[in-house]
Amino acid sequence: MRFRQWFLPCCSLLLVATGPVVAGTSNSLMDVSADGRWLAVAVRDGGTLSLVDLEKKARRRLVEVGRQPEGVSFVGESSTVAVAVYGEDRIVLVDAESGEKRRAVEVFDEPYAVVSNADGSRLYVTLTYPGQVVEIDPAAGKVLRTFDGFPFARGLAIDASDARLYVTGYHTSLVNVIDLASGETVDAWPGTSSDNLARQVVLHPKRPKAYLPHIRSRVTAVHGEGSIFPYVSVVDTASGDGRRRKRIPMDAFVGARVTANPWEVAVTPDGRSLFVVFAGTNDLYACRVVDDDYREIEHRGTLLLGNNPRAARVTPDGNTFLVYNALDYQVVEYDVKTLRSRGTIEVCPNPLGEEVHAGKVLFYSALQPMVGRRWISCASCHPDGEADARTWHNPEGLRNTQPLAGMAWTHPIHWSADRDEVQDFEHTIRGPLMQGRGLIRGRLNAGLGSPNKGLSRAADALAAYSNSHGISLSPYAKNGFSEAARRGRVLFESKRTNCRSCHTGPWYTDSTPRDEPLRHDVGTGNDDPSEKMGPAFDTPTLLGVYRSAPYLHHGKAATLRDVLVSQNRDDRHGRTSHLSDEQIDDLVAFLKSLPFEDPEPAARAARLVKIER
Ligand code: HEC
Ligand code: HEC
Predict the structure, then answer these.
(1) How many Cα atoms are found within 13 Å in the side-chain-facing hemisphere of 435?
(2) Which of 522, 556, 584 to mutate to test the pocket of ligand 2 (most atoms within 8 A of CB)?
(3) Are 574 and 497 in contact (CB under 8 A)?
(4) Cβ < 6 Å from ligand 1: which residues?
(5) How far, in Å, are 218, 360, 368, 443 from residue 432 at the CA level?
(6) Which residue, 215, 201, 33, is CA-closest to 112?
(7) What is the pLDDT of residues 137-195, one digit of tens each?
């Protein structure tokens, strides 16, 4: 959405502007057309784009766009919507008036955010993996330029003059700015090493400020009051040295009231109000923007929202703000002045089954019965089932967060195979990390003891959701194997390297339900003094390792090469010492091509056990 403002140069000491100033636009899961008629909402769970008529306050159409749509943006002032379809590596252009899909532009992998320039001649898209920004000509359906070097790029905003693009690093909260004339990265504002999950950046319409909601993951403290914190960072985009940046703690913003998982921010066109939605505590702070370069924002009001609010947008007239309660599949309209609700619009019917939906609500909730102290939800470390790229200092030793994709097929779970069902996470819910009341009444069985399944519908639902994460194919195998990957495959399959003896079957793991879990000592368990359960570990799946660094249970291998070389000096983890440098590269190229096919048909044919809940 673009805000158009007229204001005289004398009104602002910060901008020397004559004529119309355009505030630019920022990424979101929702967008409003320039004329205020249409609202477009990405429904990740349903693979659809919902188009809402804002005059009639009703959904007009639901368009299938493909797996996991994330960012949406109207193209300039038109009624065409660009949707970044994260799970299918394409940008789909949909005409809101007719509901027709006009074209699809293929990209390498994981398009997340999309923004348009003012006249709609260019779209910009972040590719979370492999960490790029691409420039697209929507009329020609072509990628024009690719900007490299933005690991896990997510948030994206374009400035008023279409000259600069702001990009956030999802796992770092690093803000980079690309000068669009030269294509160079011309400035950067790093966060702190614990900043995480920065998925959006929003520019102020008049002041040289960018706002980004994110969390902090403090891996050294695994308890409810010390590990995850909510922030809005404010970046001073005009500062000459490019360094001024501050974090506003959202758990100390209004007394001692704790919020969790800030997901999006929205600013009104007059620049006076700012809204932050919290997807964990299901609430919102309405703030006054303070022009003091110090406090930056002041609390105006708190609103309690529905389930898992993930997006906020203000209409172009500045009178209304919209909040998307992603797990109610509803948008609620509020009056900017009074903060009163003006009504609710259904975005779509619940596209998930009842049980998976109930489990997802719990997984994202930072409220009771899941959590006592409101800072954390399961999703704070496992956002959308992905990893948080962190190694936590758990009581049992260093533990790297695993992605949950394909987990239904690879029980037992945890690096130490000390849990055989997701219902065992009731121990996590009741434990020091989450301090929740819990989902199961009374006594709980040990991780590998009698089943906890069947004791509570809620715990079974949490398991059903956690086990519902499918796997995406590797972008490196889209057009078949590279020559290097082909050679690497031969090495991987060879008796000499022995990789296949443990990384077996369609999931490349021998982890499957049995009476006694199978663990292997591959020589990785001796260099962490805090380790209590090693030195033998559950074999992890290798599907998806192209994007899941760092590696090994303790996260001490930064790259796949490190797993095979510096972390395997004694050949206890397969045999790699006989391989030349080029052969290691080939083996890595093969690992990065996994999965090159859907593993489920082969897994079913081999009668592997799938734990659905
Ligand atoms: C503070 C971050 C954090 C939070 C909060 C968290 N997890 Fe985890 N999760 C981890 C880490 C780290 C691991 C790896 C631990 C291990 O293997 O011992 C993990 C592992 C898992 C696994 C095993 C994955 C596999 O393939 O073996 C599941 C399932 C899981 N978590 C579910 C949950 C659920 C459900 C919740 C909420 C009740 C939750 N987690 C809360 C960090 C977290
Ligand atoms: C004896 C069984 C065994 C063999 C043989 C074996 N692995 Fe592993 N692999 C494991 C275990 C167990 C782990 C987890 C170790 C840890 O986390 O400390 C692992 C971890 C990995 C990881 C890291 C995955 C992640 O998500 O962090 C990669 C990559 C890997 N192995 C590749 C290979 C390759 C390539 C070979 C052949 C050269 C091989 N493995 C041989 C059991 C084995």
Answers:
(1) 13
(2) 522
(3) yes
(4) 227, 376, 378, 380-382, 392, 399, 401-402, 404, 407, 413-416, 422, 425, 428-429, 433, 462, 466
(5) 15, 22, 14, 17
(6) 201
(7) 999 999 999 999 999 999 999 998 999 999 999 999 999 999 999 999 999 999 999 99
